[in-house]
Structure to design on (514 residues):
């Protein structure tokens, strides 16, 4: 039998918060993580206010949750002495300022600790995740900082194979977990050959357990899904209530992060889909949004965070996390905003009002610049078919990242509401002149903006990432790697006719690291 014991030092921590903090202060592994984080301080592309893990590589976020007043973020980590996936761990009081904690879930008996979700009970937190080679695992923790985890039964509770060796009617892969009545429920990600000519389509298989150890398979969970594509799968699933609806968030290895919105038929244990959408609008690599991790915010919404893929070799590290987003729903419309605590990072601020944007002329905004900034623009496009905003712009425009808005240039509404969608594009083809940066095709997303409604852009620039929130209804994001030190400018342009910049607020943003 292969020895799957991790080579990473593992520690057991006390049970009270004060004792845990004292133990952490002297913990050699945590001191190593702090030192690794300090070693990257001079890296010009490493973000200042987006979470990046302290050492080595990063992949999917896992198990985002709130426990005893603190937010916990877990993620696939690759410790340098054992490059198999472990669960990395960080904690925050506000979802913005994170504090590193030691690795918390280690391989054994599984070969690697892949992705999964958490479920918070009154007296404990349950993590369910995929253990490669063996099946889906469950671990529980109840200490104040979720430092100590115990694996239920010491084995896979949803094995990869049937006891008699017969084929399983479901796939065993990334799970999520919730509870209804006296039973726990779990989805296991994958596909089934139900598409045209037996091609694979997204599937999330439902299982049920009275005790976390013994699970029975029920059926495929999702009904009336006409939104995902042939070839999509349902990896990294998160199923939660949102408002008076339910939503399934997941990652497709073919076409990226997505969601299915619908109603939870608790009698039949089915999600009946009424709407669907995407979180990225192109392949997840290079430079794109990847997998979600989501948890209820306690106020009817969801908090979701994604990892983002690189587009340039960066020594010793690669991926980052997006800003946490708050999702809410009104009927079939999903809204999204950055969590409010990001505003606490604002420092020096500048405000401009009522700036005319002459047709076909680029207007430089000399009062606002930087590569770690938040920009909040309210634009009246008037009748302009396109208005654009440029950030990370060099003086000669050799490097720039372009945000373009095309009013009513998307699909028309054929479901009774009337009107036509607008489009927002995040164009990074000219973001860098470096030879080792892989360009991303333009990220173009639909967004509903009423004919007389101003365009409101919240743009977060953080060294190698740009995130753009549009009217609280859409977000486009991509990694960028400006090569020039002077690529910090901001400009606007109106296509064809004059338009107006009603207001522009800009803030320099503080680091989230003490």
């Amino acid at each position: 039998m292969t020895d799957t014991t991790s080579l990473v030092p593992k520690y057991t921590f006390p049970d009270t918060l004060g004792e845990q903090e004292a133990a952490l202060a002297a913990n050699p592994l945590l001191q190593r993580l702090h030192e690794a984080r300090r070693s990257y301080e001079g890296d010009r592309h490493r973000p200042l206010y987006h979470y990046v893990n302290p050492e080595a590589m990063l992949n999917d976020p896992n198990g985002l949750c709130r426990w005893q007043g603190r937010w916990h973020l877990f993620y696939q980590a690759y410790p340098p002495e054992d490059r198999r996936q472990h669960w990395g761990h960080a904690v925050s009081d506000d979802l913005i300022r994170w504090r590193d904690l030691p690795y918390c879930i280690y391989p054994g008996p599984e070969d690697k600790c892949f992705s999964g979700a958490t479920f918070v009970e009154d007296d404990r937190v349950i993590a369910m995740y995929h253990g490669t080679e063996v099946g889906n695992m469950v671990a529980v923790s109840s200490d104040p900082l979720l430092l100590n985890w115990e694996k239920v039964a010491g084995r896979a509770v949803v094995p990869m194979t049937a006891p008699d060796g017969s084929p399983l009617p479901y796939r065993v892969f990334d799970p999520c977990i919730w509870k209804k009545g006296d039973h726990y429920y779990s989805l296991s990600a994958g596909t089934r050959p139900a598409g045209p000519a037996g091609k694979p389509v997204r599937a999330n298989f439902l299982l049920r357990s009275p005790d976390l150890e013994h699970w029975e398979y029920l059926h495929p969970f999702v009904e009336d899904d006409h939104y995902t594509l042939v070839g999509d799968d349902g990896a990294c699933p998160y199923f939660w209530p949102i408002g008076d609806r339910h939503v399934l968030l997941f990652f497709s290895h073919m076409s990226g992060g997505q969601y299915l919105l619908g109603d939870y038929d608790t009698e039949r244990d089915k999600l009946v889909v009424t709407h669907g959408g995407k979180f990225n609008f192109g392949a997840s690599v290079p430079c794109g949004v990847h997998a979600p991790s989501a948890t209820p915010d306690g106020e009817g919404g969801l908090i979701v965070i994604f990892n983002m893929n690189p587009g340039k070799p960066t020594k010793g590290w690669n991926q980052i996390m997006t800003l946490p987003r708050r999702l809410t729903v009104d009927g079939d419309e999903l809204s999204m905003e950055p969590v409010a605590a990001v505003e606490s990072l604002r420092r020096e601020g500048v405000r401009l009002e009522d700036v005319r944007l002459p047709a076909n002329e680029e207007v430089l905004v000399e009062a606002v610049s930087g590569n770690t900034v938040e920009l909040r623009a309210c634009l009246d496009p008037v009748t302009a078919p396109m208005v654009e905003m440029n950030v990370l712009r060099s003086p000669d425009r050799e490097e720039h990242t372009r945000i373009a808005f095309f009013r009513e240039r998307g699909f028309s509404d054929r479901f009774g509401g009337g009107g036509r969608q607008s489009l927002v594009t995040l164009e990074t083809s000219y973001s860098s002149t470096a030879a080792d940066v892989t360009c991303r095709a333009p990220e173009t997303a639909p967004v509903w903006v009423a004919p007389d409604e101003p365009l409101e852009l919240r743009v977060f620039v953080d060294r190698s990432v740009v995130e753009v929130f549009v009217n609280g209804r859409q977000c486009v994001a991509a990694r960028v790697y400006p090569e020039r030190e002077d690529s910090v400018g901001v400009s606007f342009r109106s296509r064809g006719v004059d338009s107006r910049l009603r207001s522009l607020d800009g803030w320099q943003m503080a680091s989230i690291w003490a």
